[in-house]
Write a structure and sequence with these properties.
The complex is a heterodimer of chains A (122) and B (232). Chain A is mainly alpha-helical and 122 residues long. Chain A has 2 domains: 66 residues, Winged helix-like DNA-binding domain superfamily/Winged helix DNA-binding domain (Arc Repressor Mutant, subunit A, Orthogonal Bundle), CATH 1.10.10; 39 residues. In chain A, 59% of the residues lie in helices and 8% in strands. Chain A has a 3-stranded antiparallel β-sheet, with helices on one face. In chain A, helix 1 crosses helix 4 and helix 2 packs across helix 3. The longest helix of chain A is centred in the last third of the chain and has 26 residues. Chain A starts with 10 loop residues before the first helix and ends in a 5-residue tail after the last helix. In chain A, 23% of the residues are buried. Chain B is an alpha/beta fold and 232 residues long. Chain B has one domain: P-loop containing nucleotide triphosphate hydrolases (Rossmann fold), CATH 3.40.50. Chain B is built from 9 helices and 10 strands. In chain B, the strands form 2 sheets. A 6-stranded mixed β-sheet of chain B has the order 6-7-8-3-9-10, sandwiched between helices. In chain B, strands 2-1-4-5 form a 4-stranded antiparallel β-sheet. In chain B, a hairpin with a 2-residue loop joins strand 4 and strand 5. The radius of gyration of chain B is 17 Å and the shape is globular. Classes of the chains: A mainly alpha (122), B alpha/beta (232).
Chain lengths: 122, 232
Protein backbone atom coordinates (compact mmCIF):
# COMPACT_ATOMS: atom_id res chain seq x y z
CA UNK A 1 0.00 0.00 0.00
CA UNK A 2 1.07 3.54 -0.61
CA UNK A 3 0.80 6.13 2.09
CA UNK A 4 0.81 9.90 1.93
CA UNK A 5 0.37 12.24 4.84
CA UNK A 6 -0.32 15.93 5.12
CA UNK A 7 0.59 18.23 7.97
CA UNK A 8 -2.76 19.45 9.19
CA UNK A 9 -4.74 16.57 10.65
CA UNK A 10 -3.84 13.76 13.03
CA UNK A 11 -2.05 10.90 11.29
CA UNK A 12 -4.48 8.25 12.55
CA UNK A 13 -7.36 10.07 10.83
CA UNK A 14 -5.39 10.18 7.60
CA UNK A 15 -4.71 6.46 7.83
CA UNK A 16 -8.44 5.85 8.36
CA UNK A 17 -9.31 7.93 5.32
CA UNK A 18 -6.80 6.12 3.15
CA UNK A 19 -8.04 2.69 4.20
CA UNK A 20 -11.61 3.83 3.58
CA UNK A 21 -10.64 4.99 0.09
CA UNK A 22 -9.05 1.60 -0.60
CA UNK A 23 -12.25 -0.16 0.49
CA UNK A 24 -14.49 2.22 -1.46
CA UNK A 25 -12.51 1.78 -4.65
CA UNK A 26 -12.23 -1.96 -4.27
CA UNK A 27 -8.48 -2.09 -3.76
CA UNK A 28 -9.30 -3.73 -0.45
CA UNK A 29 -12.11 -6.23 -0.69
CA UNK A 30 -14.40 -7.76 1.90
CA UNK A 31 -12.60 -10.63 3.57
CA UNK A 32 -9.10 -9.39 2.64
CA UNK A 33 -6.62 -9.92 5.43
CA UNK A 34 -4.60 -6.92 6.56
CA UNK A 35 -0.94 -7.10 7.56
CA UNK A 36 -0.14 -6.80 11.26
CA UNK A 37 -0.13 -3.41 12.94
CA UNK A 38 3.63 -3.53 13.21
CA UNK A 39 4.07 -4.33 9.53
CA UNK A 40 1.67 -1.60 8.52
CA UNK A 41 3.39 0.89 10.83
CA UNK A 42 6.81 0.12 9.37
CA UNK A 43 5.45 0.29 5.83
CA UNK A 44 3.76 3.64 6.41
CA UNK A 45 6.63 4.92 8.56
CA UNK A 46 4.31 5.81 11.41
CA UNK A 47 4.16 5.14 15.11
CA UNK A 48 2.68 1.69 15.89
CA UNK A 49 0.31 3.20 18.46
CA UNK A 50 -1.01 5.54 15.78
CA UNK A 51 -1.62 2.61 13.42
CA UNK A 52 -3.29 0.67 16.22
CA UNK A 53 -5.57 3.59 16.96
CA UNK A 54 -6.62 3.87 13.30
CA UNK A 55 -7.34 0.13 13.13
CA UNK A 56 -9.41 0.19 16.33
CA UNK A 57 -11.44 3.14 15.08
CA UNK A 58 -12.09 1.41 11.76
CA UNK A 59 -13.23 -1.66 13.67
CA UNK A 60 -15.52 0.46 15.77
CA UNK A 61 -17.03 1.89 12.58
CA UNK A 62 -17.62 -1.64 11.33
CA UNK A 63 -15.25 -1.49 8.37
CA UNK A 64 -12.71 -3.93 9.75
CA UNK A 65 -13.11 -6.87 12.04
CA UNK A 66 -10.52 -8.81 13.93
CA UNK A 67 -10.44 -12.45 14.87
CA UNK A 68 -8.32 -13.10 17.86
CA UNK A 69 -6.17 -15.81 16.38
CA UNK A 70 -6.11 -15.07 12.68
CA UNK A 71 -5.72 -11.32 12.40
CA UNK A 72 -7.66 -8.41 11.01
CA UNK A 73 -9.92 -8.43 7.94
CA UNK A 74 -12.00 -6.11 5.83
CA UNK A 75 -15.56 -6.58 7.06
CA UNK A 76 -18.15 -8.22 4.84
CA UNK A 77 -20.42 -5.25 4.78
CA UNK A 78 -21.47 -4.19 1.27
CA UNK A 79 -23.79 -1.38 2.35
CA UNK A 80 -20.96 0.18 4.28
CA UNK A 81 -18.74 0.05 1.20
CA UNK A 82 -21.43 1.81 -0.83
CA UNK A 83 -21.87 4.55 1.72
CA UNK A 84 -18.10 4.98 1.79
CA UNK A 85 -18.03 5.51 -1.93
CA UNK A 86 -20.77 8.08 -1.53
CA UNK A 87 -18.87 9.78 1.27
CA UNK A 88 -15.76 10.08 -0.89
CA UNK A 89 -17.80 11.25 -3.87
CA UNK A 90 -19.34 14.03 -1.81
CA UNK A 91 -15.89 15.13 -0.64
CA UNK A 92 -14.75 15.34 -4.28
CA UNK A 93 -17.82 17.27 -5.39
CA UNK A 94 -17.49 19.65 -2.48
CA UNK A 95 -13.90 20.44 -3.37
CA UNK A 96 -14.77 20.83 -7.04
CA UNK A 97 -17.66 23.19 -6.34
CA UNK A 98 -15.57 25.33 -4.00
CA UNK A 99 -12.79 25.62 -6.57
CA UNK A 100 -15.18 26.48 -9.39
CA UNK A 101 -16.89 29.11 -7.25
CA UNK A 102 -13.54 30.68 -6.49
CA UNK A 103 -12.85 30.86 -10.20
CA UNK A 104 -16.21 32.55 -10.73
CA UNK A 105 -18.10 29.83 -12.64
CA UNK A 106 -21.83 29.24 -12.23
CA UNK A 107 -23.42 25.84 -11.64
CA UNK A 108 -24.68 25.67 -15.23
CA UNK A 109 -21.31 26.57 -16.71
CA UNK A 110 -19.59 24.05 -14.47
CA UNK A 111 -21.88 21.23 -15.55
CA UNK A 112 -21.35 22.07 -19.23
CA UNK A 113 -17.60 22.20 -18.71
CA UNK A 114 -17.60 18.82 -16.95
CA UNK A 115 -19.48 17.32 -19.88
CA UNK A 116 -17.20 18.97 -22.40
CA UNK A 117 -14.02 17.71 -20.74
CA UNK A 118 -15.28 14.38 -19.34
CA UNK A 119 -13.69 12.25 -22.06
CA UNK A 120 -11.10 14.73 -23.22
CA UNK A 121 -7.45 14.16 -22.60
CA UNK A 122 -6.46 17.05 -20.36
CA UNK B 1 2.33 0.81 31.03
CA UNK B 2 4.31 2.52 33.74
CA UNK B 3 6.67 5.41 33.93
CA UNK B 4 9.96 4.32 32.51
CA UNK B 5 11.67 7.66 33.08
CA UNK B 6 10.90 10.24 35.74
CA UNK B 7 12.57 13.55 36.45
CA UNK B 8 11.65 15.55 39.52
CA UNK B 9 12.86 19.14 39.68
CA UNK B 10 15.94 18.27 37.70
CA UNK B 11 18.50 21.06 37.46
CA UNK B 12 21.93 20.89 35.89
CA UNK B 13 24.53 23.63 36.13
CA UNK B 14 27.86 23.86 34.36
CA UNK B 15 29.57 26.32 36.68
CA UNK B 16 27.27 29.31 36.72
CA UNK B 17 25.51 28.34 33.49
CA UNK B 18 22.15 26.66 34.02
CA UNK B 19 21.74 23.96 31.36
CA UNK B 20 18.57 22.39 32.74
CA UNK B 21 16.23 24.41 34.88
CA UNK B 22 13.89 22.59 37.25
CA UNK B 23 12.55 19.99 34.82
CA UNK B 24 9.86 17.57 35.95
CA UNK B 25 8.52 15.01 33.51
CA UNK B 26 7.57 11.39 33.17
CA UNK B 27 7.74 9.16 30.13
CA UNK B 28 5.57 6.07 29.77
CA UNK B 29 6.77 2.79 28.41
CA UNK B 30 5.30 1.97 25.02
CA UNK B 31 5.71 5.57 23.87
CA UNK B 32 8.07 7.15 21.40
CA UNK B 33 8.79 10.69 22.55
CA UNK B 34 10.53 13.43 20.61
CA UNK B 35 12.79 15.72 22.61
CA UNK B 36 12.79 18.87 20.53
CA UNK B 37 14.58 22.14 20.93
CA UNK B 38 17.11 24.38 19.23
CA UNK B 39 20.83 23.86 19.60
CA UNK B 40 22.01 24.51 23.13
CA UNK B 41 18.56 24.07 24.68
CA UNK B 42 19.64 21.20 26.92
CA UNK B 43 18.54 18.11 24.96
CA UNK B 44 21.88 16.34 25.10
CA UNK B 45 22.39 17.24 28.75
CA UNK B 46 19.04 15.70 29.66
CA UNK B 47 19.79 12.52 27.74
CA UNK B 48 23.26 12.25 29.23
CA UNK B 49 21.88 12.59 32.74
CA UNK B 50 19.24 9.92 32.10
CA UNK B 51 21.89 7.59 30.73
CA UNK B 52 24.19 8.19 33.69
CA UNK B 53 27.03 9.94 31.89
CA UNK B 54 26.44 13.23 33.67
CA UNK B 55 25.02 13.72 37.13
CA UNK B 56 22.26 16.10 38.11
CA UNK B 57 23.08 19.19 40.15
CA UNK B 58 19.71 19.11 41.87
CA UNK B 59 16.59 16.97 41.74
CA UNK B 60 15.96 13.31 41.17
CA UNK B 61 15.99 11.14 38.07
CA UNK B 62 14.68 7.56 37.98
CA UNK B 63 14.79 5.09 35.11
CA UNK B 64 12.75 1.90 35.44
CA UNK B 65 12.11 2.69 39.10
CA UNK B 66 15.78 2.99 40.00
CA UNK B 67 17.90 6.03 40.58
CA UNK B 68 20.40 6.52 37.79
CA UNK B 69 23.31 4.18 38.45
CA UNK B 70 24.40 0.60 37.88
CA UNK B 71 20.85 -0.80 37.93
CA UNK B 72 19.38 1.83 35.61
CA UNK B 73 22.21 1.42 33.11
CA UNK B 74 21.26 -2.23 32.62
CA UNK B 75 17.93 -1.20 31.13
CA UNK B 76 18.94 1.99 29.32
CA UNK B 77 20.33 1.85 25.79
CA UNK B 78 22.01 5.10 24.81
CA UNK B 79 22.91 6.34 21.33
CA UNK B 80 25.36 9.23 21.60
CA UNK B 81 25.43 12.11 19.15
CA UNK B 82 28.57 10.73 17.57
CA UNK B 83 29.59 7.10 17.10
CA UNK B 84 32.31 6.23 19.60
CA UNK B 85 34.02 3.17 18.20
CA UNK B 86 37.67 3.37 17.39
CA UNK B 87 38.27 3.62 13.62
CA UNK B 88 40.54 0.60 13.69
CA UNK B 89 37.89 -1.77 15.06
CA UNK B 90 36.13 -4.24 12.85
CA UNK B 91 32.33 -4.35 12.82
CA UNK B 92 32.49 -7.85 14.32
CA UNK B 93 34.60 -6.47 17.19
CA UNK B 94 32.04 -3.80 17.99
CA UNK B 95 29.45 -6.57 18.25
CA UNK B 96 31.67 -8.54 20.62
CA UNK B 97 32.13 -5.36 22.65
CA UNK B 98 28.38 -4.92 23.08
CA UNK B 99 27.92 -8.60 23.87
CA UNK B 100 30.48 -8.32 26.67
CA UNK B 101 28.97 -5.15 28.06
CA UNK B 102 25.25 -5.82 27.89
CA UNK B 103 23.50 -9.05 28.85
CA UNK B 104 20.36 -7.96 26.97
CA UNK B 105 22.22 -7.66 23.66
CA UNK B 106 21.05 -9.88 20.80
CA UNK B 107 23.90 -10.75 18.50
CA UNK B 108 21.49 -12.36 16.01
CA UNK B 109 19.34 -9.25 15.77
CA UNK B 110 22.41 -7.09 15.12
CA UNK B 111 23.82 -9.51 12.54
CA UNK B 112 20.53 -9.63 10.69
CA UNK B 113 20.17 -5.85 10.51
CA UNK B 114 23.77 -5.39 9.38
CA UNK B 115 23.22 -8.02 6.70
CA UNK B 116 20.19 -6.15 5.38
CA UNK B 117 22.40 -3.06 5.19
CA UNK B 118 25.10 -5.01 3.36
CA UNK B 119 27.67 -3.99 5.94
CA UNK B 120 30.36 -6.63 6.20
CA UNK B 121 31.41 -8.02 9.56
CA UNK B 122 35.11 -7.80 8.76
CA UNK B 123 34.96 -4.18 7.56
CA UNK B 124 36.89 -1.73 9.69
CA UNK B 125 34.98 1.24 11.06
CA UNK B 126 37.34 3.65 9.31
CA UNK B 127 36.41 2.25 5.90
CA UNK B 128 32.68 2.91 6.43
CA UNK B 129 30.94 6.05 5.26
CA UNK B 130 29.69 8.48 7.89
CA UNK B 131 26.14 7.27 7.31
CA UNK B 132 27.12 3.63 7.71
CA UNK B 133 29.07 4.34 10.89
CA UNK B 134 25.98 5.92 12.39
CA UNK B 135 23.88 2.99 11.22
CA UNK B 136 26.24 0.46 12.84
CA UNK B 137 26.05 2.35 16.11
CA UNK B 138 22.25 2.50 15.93
CA UNK B 139 21.98 -1.20 15.06
CA UNK B 140 24.01 -2.06 18.16
CA UNK B 141 21.99 0.21 20.41
CA UNK B 142 18.67 -1.09 19.07
CA UNK B 143 19.77 -4.72 19.32
CA UNK B 144 19.58 -4.53 23.09
CA UNK B 145 16.31 -5.57 24.69
CA UNK B 146 16.31 -2.43 26.79
CA UNK B 147 13.47 -0.74 28.61
CA UNK B 148 14.49 2.77 27.66
CA UNK B 149 16.22 3.85 24.47
CA UNK B 150 17.81 7.29 24.52
CA UNK B 151 18.71 8.37 21.01
CA UNK B 152 20.59 11.63 20.74
CA UNK B 153 20.30 13.07 17.22
CA UNK B 154 20.10 9.65 15.54
CA UNK B 155 19.74 11.28 12.14
CA UNK B 156 22.25 14.06 12.40
CA UNK B 157 24.29 14.45 9.26
CA UNK B 158 22.96 11.51 7.26
CA UNK B 159 21.12 11.59 3.94
CA UNK B 160 17.31 11.20 3.67
CA UNK B 161 17.52 7.53 2.63
CA UNK B 162 19.63 6.76 5.68
CA UNK B 163 17.13 8.69 7.82
CA UNK B 164 14.38 6.43 6.54
CA UNK B 165 16.40 3.38 7.44
CA UNK B 166 17.01 4.75 10.92
CA UNK B 167 13.34 5.47 11.51
CA UNK B 168 12.39 2.07 10.15
CA UNK B 169 14.86 0.41 12.48
CA UNK B 170 13.37 2.24 15.43
CA UNK B 171 9.84 1.22 14.39
CA UNK B 172 10.77 -2.40 13.78
CA UNK B 173 12.33 -2.68 17.21
CA UNK B 174 9.46 -0.94 18.94
CA UNK B 175 7.87 -2.85 21.79
CA UNK B 176 5.17 -1.93 24.27
CA UNK B 177 7.37 -2.47 27.27
CA UNK B 178 10.04 0.01 26.27
CA UNK B 179 10.14 3.76 26.01
CA UNK B 180 12.04 5.60 23.30
CA UNK B 181 13.28 9.17 23.46
CA UNK B 182 14.60 10.74 20.28
CA UNK B 183 16.27 14.11 20.44
CA UNK B 184 16.38 15.94 17.14
CA UNK B 185 15.74 19.13 15.30
CA UNK B 186 14.76 17.31 12.09
CA UNK B 187 11.16 17.39 13.18
CA UNK B 188 9.35 16.86 9.91
CA UNK B 189 11.29 13.63 9.43
CA UNK B 190 10.42 12.11 12.81
CA UNK B 191 7.00 13.57 13.43
CA UNK B 192 5.10 10.57 12.06
CA UNK B 193 6.82 8.10 14.36
CA UNK B 194 6.28 10.06 17.57
CA UNK B 195 3.54 9.62 20.17
CA UNK B 196 4.49 12.65 22.22
CA UNK B 197 6.75 15.64 21.98
CA UNK B 198 8.63 17.67 24.55
CA UNK B 199 9.73 21.19 23.65
CA UNK B 200 12.70 22.48 25.57
CA UNK B 201 14.16 25.99 25.49
CA UNK B 202 17.04 27.38 27.50
CA UNK B 203 16.88 24.38 29.80
CA UNK B 204 13.18 24.78 30.53
CA UNK B 205 10.47 22.42 29.42
CA UNK B 206 7.80 24.47 27.70
CA UNK B 207 5.51 21.77 26.30
CA UNK B 208 4.81 18.06 26.74
CA UNK B 209 1.93 16.98 24.53
CA UNK B 210 0.78 14.22 22.19
CA UNK B 211 1.28 14.75 18.46
CA UNK B 212 -2.39 13.90 17.80
CA UNK B 213 -3.44 16.54 20.31
CA UNK B 214 -1.30 19.21 18.67
CA UNK B 215 -2.56 18.36 15.20
CA UNK B 216 -6.23 18.19 16.15
CA UNK B 217 -6.28 21.19 18.49
CA UNK B 218 -4.01 23.52 16.58
CA UNK B 219 -4.60 22.16 13.08
CA UNK B 220 -0.91 22.22 12.34
CA UNK B 221 2.04 19.90 12.36
CA UNK B 222 4.55 19.74 15.20
CA UNK B 223 7.10 21.07 12.74
CA UNK B 224 4.96 24.17 12.10
CA UNK B 225 4.33 24.66 15.81
CA UNK B 226 8.03 24.33 16.53
CA UNK B 227 8.90 26.98 13.97
CA UNK B 228 6.32 29.26 15.53
CA UNK B 229 7.42 28.73 19.13
CA UNK B 230 11.12 28.98 18.38
CA UNK B 231 10.98 31.70 15.74
CA UNK B 232 13.82 34.14 16.09
Amino acid sequence: MEWKFNNDTPIYQQIMEQIKAMIATGRLKAGDKLPSVRELAVEAGVNPNTMQKAMSELEREGLLCSRRTSGRFVAKNPEKANSLQEELMIECIKEFIESMKKLGYSAGDSINLVEKYWDADI
Amino acid sequence: MGNILECHNLTKKYGSKVALDNISLSINSGKITGLLGPNGSGKTTLIKIASGILSASEGEVMAGGNRIGVESKKIVSYLPERPYFSPGMKVSETIKFFKDFYSDFSEDAAAEMLKSLEIKMDARIRTLSKGNREKVQLVLVMSRKAKLYLLDEPMGGVDPAARDFILKTILMNYNEEAGVIISTHLISDVEKVLDDVIFIRNGKMILHESVDQIRSEKGKSVDALFREVFAC
